[in-house]
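Tokens help. One example:
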Amino acid sequence: MRAFQIAIIGGGVAGSAIARELSKYNLRVVVFEKGSDVASGASKANSGVIHSGINSPPSSLKARFCVEGNRMFPRLSEELGFPVKWTGKCVIAKNEDEIKELERLKHVGMKNGVPGLEMLDEDEMKKRESHVACCAALWVPTAGITLPYEFTIALAENAAENGVRFLLETAVTGLKKQDDYFVMETGKGDFQAEMVINAAGVHCREIVSMMEDPDFQVYPCRGEYLVLDKNYRSLVNSMIYPVPVKELGVLGVHITPTIEGNILLGPSAEFIDDHEDTRTTGPMMRTLLSEAREIIPEIPERAAIAAYAGIRCKLSPPESGGWADYRIEERDGMIHLLGIESPGLTAAPAIAKEVVRMVSRSLELEEKTDFNPKRASKPRFSELPAEEQSRIIEGDGRWGRVVCRCEHVTEAEVIEALSNPLGARTLASVKYRCRAGMGRCQGGFCTQHVVRIMEEHFGMNIRDITLKSPGSYLFPGRTRGDSSD
């Protein structure tokens, strides 16, 4: 039986942040992720916002970890090479009643230690955001944006480079305690660990139920998004949020610029029964566009190029307001992360430090002398000066072969993406590492070339190539006969 000191269930942003924090110590750590890559759930399907801490009640874990996590991002970005942009956020009011709510949010933010909060009148707001219709706004300068999938990947890959083992496509199907260790049953055999950390997100209750009767329910809440073409990037400079919808415990449909130049509209908030139901729907897409156009009327009706959805892990049903604080609890050698939803991306680094403090009460932690906090990263080839591009192409012609026209991704960049330390080899793992397939045509041109690279450079059988998850095969059979079959 393969033995570890610590097992983490879930390779989302929380699990990956914990793995990276634990990789600083002389420990045998494994991460079980049922998806084909890290960030396969809500950690990729969110707004990518680095929240400031104005929306969570003072003294709550959400407020504490959000504010602490926000302050950690500059250093993390420098060490791990993922992008961060401090765009700031405007929470807008459309009438006098909503102005009172802005004052309340400002008061909450100040109590939580959020600096620089400022009320803006209509004229001041017009100078800052000329396309936005409102009568007042709360300016939040410490809010920022990142690429949520790239942040999670950076955490995980740095953890792997520092000795953490990641087992992809490995769902934990059983869990039991034997003497002073746990046995985890998976499709790849049994494993044992002295401690188990439950970071399974929306599936956290399923892990708890393997050991005891849970004292809580999970209420999945689907959030759909629209992605606008980069041609409309000039419509906003910062994030634009409405006054939060109190009865659902969510922040409402907001307009968010992205690092890459697209604009996001969303998310919706629909409580559903199926934890895996991430479909996008025509009616909701029309609703998102309609609500966004109330804020920015200049958004064209045909501006969207893609849609996606993520599932929030809520511990409170809609009839109870939809808001519940995080629960981070230790019981009988297990640490459970329950209800980690927004601002989970922001809070993850601070939650990771808290979990390590909890681990230190049970295991002796010895810092590594060779821990490397840096993750090798470099700018995209398309962003390099022409002279440097020419020099690189002379050394390796694959840098001169453009595979993705929309995002200007080269064959060499696709090869590097497929050579990642986690061993993730799906079309999605390529997309989230180098953006091939994320442009206007959504993979219409580059998919065939990425598949060719998978076959030629990595020896993959075309029938084994998947889109993004176990079983999502792209080529289940041939439409014509082949003498090689």
Residues 272 and 284 are 14 Å apart (CA to CA).
